């Protein structure tokens, strides 16, 4: 992960859709344009829906990392509003 510096992390492994995206969106709103957020989420619906919804909001998906334990880390750069 040396190619970017993560500003904040949000863990949404304990919530279900659509709250997963809402928590991720709130965390992104607290960042400045260009800052990086790591979203820690469970496999399944969040991995399918959260990246798509964040992209639709206009933010940049940098990486989706498989942690090999049933969780993923989605790395997102906030794009201006």
Kindly describe this structure:
- The chain has 81 residues and is of the alpha+beta class.
- Helix content is 28%, strand content 33%.
- It contains two helices and four strands.
- Strand 1 (6-11), helix 1 and strand 2 form a beta-alpha-beta unit.
- Helix 1 (19-29) packs across helix 2.
- The longest helix has 12 residues, at 45-56.
- The model has no long low-confidence stretch (mean pLDDT 92).
Task: Spell out the blueprint of helices and strands.
Elements lengths: L5 E6 L7 H11 L6 E7 L2 H12 L3 E7 L4 E7 L4
Parallel strand pairs: 1-2
Antiparallel strand pairs: 2-4, 3-4
For the CA atoms, what is the radius of gyration?
Answer: 11 Å
Helix count equals 2
Spatial strand order of the main sheet: 1-2-4-3
Biggest sheet character: 4 strands, mixed
Number of domains in the coordinates?
1
CATH superfamily: TusA-like domain
Structural class computed from helices and strand pairing:
alpha+beta
Low-confidence stretches: none
Q: Helicity, in percent?
A: 25-40%
CATH hierarchy class name: Alpha Beta
Shape: globular
Number of strands: 4
Distance between the termini: 26 Å
Strand content: 25-35%
Order of helices and strands: EHEHEE
Level-2 CATH architecture: 2-Layer Sandwich
Summarize the structure.
It contains 2 helices and 4 strands; from the N terminus they run βαβαββ. It is of the alpha+beta class and 81 residues long.
Fill in the keyword field for this structure.
81 residues, alpha+beta, Translation Initiation Factor IF3, 2 helices, 28% helix, globular
């Amino acid at each position: 992960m040396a190619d970017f510096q993560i500003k904040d992390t949000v863990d949404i492994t304990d919530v279900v859709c659509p709250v997963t995206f809402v928590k991720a969106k709130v965390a992104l709103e607290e960042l400045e344009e260009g800052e990086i957020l790591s979203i820690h989420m469970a496999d399944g619906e969040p991995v399918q829906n959260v990246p798509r919804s964040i992209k639709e909001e206009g933010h940049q998906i940098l990486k989706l990392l498989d942690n090999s334990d049933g969780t993923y880390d989605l790395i997102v750069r906030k794009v201006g509003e």
